[in-house]
């Protein structure tokens, strides 16, 4: 099996594909963890969406049902897109840009307003910046050497 084959084994995956798989798997785990009482404090206050949810993943990161679903969907996308080099690259770089925009959005909005529908808190905002830098960095660092060169 070759790396170009979507059914390629893990042994033939490129570094960018492995990075996309790992990042996607972490998002899946975070999405699941957000639904586990104990890992999520104030679990009984979790709402579907909105800034009224006081549920905190690991006692730090504000979560809601919607927030957890977004993590699960993002994780599934990362794992699915890791099947190809281009997909993995696009997930990491594109996803990193999305997280950069989420960081900016979280800085701009009033956390006590309806604009905070996911919801975010200060810890989420700074984690979004770290994710943006990490994902874009991984995508650019690992993806450029793996993508076919255009003439």
TrEMBL record:
It comes from Saccharothrix syringae. This is DUF4383 domain-containing protein. The chain crosses the membrane at residues 18-36, 56-81, 88-106, 126-143. Keywords: Membrane, Transmembrane, Transmembrane helix.
């Amino acid at each position: 099996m070759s790396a170009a084959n979507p059914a390629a084994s893990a042994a033939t995956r490129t570094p960018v594909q492995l990075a996309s798989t790992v990042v996607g798997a972490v998002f899946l785990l975070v999405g699941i963890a957000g639904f586990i009482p104990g890992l999520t404090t104030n679990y009984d206050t979790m709402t579907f969406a909105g800034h009224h949810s006081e549920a905190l993943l690991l006692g730090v990161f504000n979560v809601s049902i919607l927030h957890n679903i977004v993590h699960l969907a993002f994780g599934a996308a990362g794992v699915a897109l890791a099947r190809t080099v281009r997909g993995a690259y696009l997930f990491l770089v594109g996803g990193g840009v999305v997280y950069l925009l989420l960081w900016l959005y979280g800085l701009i909005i009033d956390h006590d307003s309806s604009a905070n529908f996911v919801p975010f808190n200060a810890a989420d905002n700074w984690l979004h910046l770290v994710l943006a830098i990490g994902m874009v960095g991984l995508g650019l660092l690992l993806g450029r050497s793996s993508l076919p060169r255009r003439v």
